[in-house]
């Protein structure tokens, strides 16, 4: 039998699901679940850096999440600036972490758009791990937007390849995810990375996102290594 050398895992994407149920189980408002989820995200980003991953994509707000009650949407949208405070950005700089926002961020309040831009600019020369925060992200819309740009760039049909399409996606220049993790027991793709997920391993856990740990992350990576 030919030994298969496992391909190095460099890009992990995570669907951070279950914040609402975590809060409900504790008799807390959903906002408490989102806050706890943010703390878990902070720890997991550190773990991903320690594990020397090259790319981490975090599904933080989907294009479908606008359908939630306005007060919940407002609370979720207040979290990025709570999370990306000066101390965290300094830590990213020390760890050489670059931040990108993927999704249609033009739909957010002007101040938030400006903050996202400032953070991307501030970290753009960090050449270590890239963290993509998927905010108002929808995979179908990402593909529609790519097609629109391809048409407006007058790309000839005969020169249209998979690589060309990839170069018009938000993840342009990045490798496709090797592993997609979804917490909370749901086994759906929920419009996440529809193009990019084509050869990714999918890994599900019943653990709700705020309870997610490095041990589970390592388990997911190990299962993915075995399967590829
Ligand atoms: C994931 O947790 C966070 C976001 C979608 C922003 P949920 O809020 O979906 O939590 P559940 O699925 O209701 O438990
Ligand atoms: C997916 O979770 C989006 C995020 C994790 C941000 P949802 O809870 O919004 O997805 P559905 O509604 O269960 O498909
Ligand atoms: Mg959910």
């Amino acid at each position: 039998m030919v030994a298969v050398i496992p391909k190095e895992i460099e890009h992990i994407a995570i669907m951070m699901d279950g914040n609402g149920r975590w809060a409900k189980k504790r008799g807390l408002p959903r906002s408490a679940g989102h806050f706890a989820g943010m703390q878990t995200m902070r720890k997991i980003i550190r773990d991903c850096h320690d594990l020397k991953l090259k790319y981490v994509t975090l599904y933080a707000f989907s294009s479908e999440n606008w359908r939630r009650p306005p007060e919940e949407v407002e609370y979720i949208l207040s979290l990025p600036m709570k999370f990306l405070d000066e101390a965290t950005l300094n830590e990213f700089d020390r760890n050489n972490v670059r931040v990108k926002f993927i999704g249609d961020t033009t739909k957010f309040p002007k101040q938030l758009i400006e903050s996202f831009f400032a953070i991307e600019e501030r970290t753009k020369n960090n050449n270590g791990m890239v963290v993509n925060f998927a905010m108002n992200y929808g995979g179908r819309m990402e593909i529609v937007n790519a097609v629109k740009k391809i048409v407006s760039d007058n790309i000839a049909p005969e020169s249209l390849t998979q690589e060309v399409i990839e170069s018009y996606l938000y993840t342009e220049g990045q490798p496709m995810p090797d592993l997609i993790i979804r917490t909370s027991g749901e086994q759906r793709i929920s419009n996440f990375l529809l193009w990019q997920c084509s050869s990714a391993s999918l890994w599900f856990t019943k653990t709700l996102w705020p309870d997610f740990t490095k041990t589970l992350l390592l388990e997911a990576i190990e299962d993915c290594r075995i399967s590829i």
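The chain has one domain: 11-136+177-227. Residues 17 surround magnesium ion (ligand 3) (CB under 6 Å).
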